[in-house]
Amino acid sequence: MGSRSRGRHLLLLLLLLHLLSLHSSLLVPWAAVSAAGGGGSGDPYVGVTIGTAVTNLLSPSDLAEFLRAQRITHVRLYDADPRMLSALASSGARAIVGVPNDELLALGSSPATASAWVARRVLPYAGSNSSTPGLIAAIAVGDEVPTALPSALPVLLPAIQSLAAALAAANLSSIPVSTPLPFSVVLDPFPPSQAFFNQSLAKSFILPLLSHLANTSAPLMLNLYPYYSMMQSNGVIPLDNALFKPLPPSLEMVDPNTLLHYTNVFDAMLDAVHVAVKNLNATGGGGGPVPVLVTETGWPSYGDRRAEPYATRDNADAYNSNLIKHVTDKPGTPMRPGAQASVYIYELFNEDLRPGPVSEANWGLFHGNGTPVYLLHVSGAGGFLANDTTDRTFCIASDDADEKAVQAAMDWACGPGRTDCTAIQPGQGCYEPNDVRSHASFAFDSYYQSQGKAAGSCYFQGVGMVTTTDPSEYIPPQHCHFLLIADAFRMSQTTAGHDSCIFPGSKLLSNVTKSDGANTTTAQTSDAEGSAIWRLRTGRETGFLFILRWLLSLSMVLITTNSNFWT
């Protein structure tokens, strides 16, 4: 690059320094969002699992902010990634960390390896010198090993024992160590009173495991899916019974041995586990039963129409919404009223990269871009999830819709549909990012809100979709860098009071009466605001700080290199 190019870069740096002095009064830190408590003192809670087979998975820091924004305080990870744990330290969440199946042999055959694993994966985040001693809630060793990797079964219990011993040596015996088992280890689960563990595993593995769990006050971890039980029942289990929907007493499941009525499959499966454990005479540390922790449960929102007809959004919504209410209401089971197990919903994001049946990629509550897959109906259920109510919905352009169809729908909304599209005209607050989908999303939501969110008002010939994520707070990741540059330029041309883009249905809108009696619309801070991706539109001050850092770093790279960066 010649002197002329270097001069332009120096000029850019000087311009940025000028902007810094001009806007220095705006540089204020983001307010931290408090995370809701997870129900301490043994209270049951609802958590989520986080798989990583997701296209463009959020960075660990953005994921931590997303969890905090959604008020999710318990997560299950399938490994112990230091980057993820470091990021979660600021989220207020507690995490079950996992040991992958392919690490079992090393940990189960060498106590020294287990001690090293604890030192590397646990102590930095849970030790006495850690700033977040409560981050790690438990360790899940392997996952469904009896069926997923039966050859590793002989080393599974030794791995659990070695890790527990290493934690005890580090004064961390309060962190329980267990292993998630598949429900298939329980045979003849209905009626629950007749259930028993697979005899090939009962004495050789499950009884020694339960004895260890009892001695260390650790829970029996189980992956429990009423969806699969119903699918495999050949019509014996009613769909409504699997979805926690009420049935007439005549249709309820009744255990003929105990005469207990079961209003849902989930409780029947839990009681089957309780009976199977009792039949092995395994008790907890205080002489009571070994507690059960449901480390996975959920319902797919989409599947093959012929092979998986019950994998629908409505059914997934019904199951997970009712599950959350069930757990937070703390009814327990018919056999153990009041003793409600905590659960982890499988899973946070659709893992679109997972192989297998169509449903395998469709268990998530959210798409990879942070928009909900469906609307949960859990208002008042302990504050779990910040966007869990249909009272706050928006209409946006579908990500996978044809762009020409989106353009045609926007033209209709801004024309015959009589939607006010002024805000997406050049120079207006919602003009950037200047692309069809962003403009259409504003137009669609304007029409949707003007119609009172009536059924069909977000159809737009199939290119519209309803979401509970506020578009004013969310920016698709592909637009983030563009908006940073666009906002930097616009801010250098306008005053600090330039309006941000606020969608018509946004909860960020409030009518405020000025002292002169005029009404204006202002943005308010939401308790669900978090990371840069979700706050760029709503935080002009923060946006500028982020922009400045990004551009300054870019300028320094350009100034100190002679490479032809732009070509």
From TrEMBL:
Documented EC number(s): 3.2.1.39
X8 domain residues: 393-482
Keyword Membrane: yes
Signal peptide limits: 1-25
Lipoprotein listed as a keyword: yes
Membrane topology, as annotated: Lipid-anchor; GPI-anchor
Name this polypeptide is given: glucan endo-1,3-beta-D-glucosidase
Organism: Oryza meridionalis
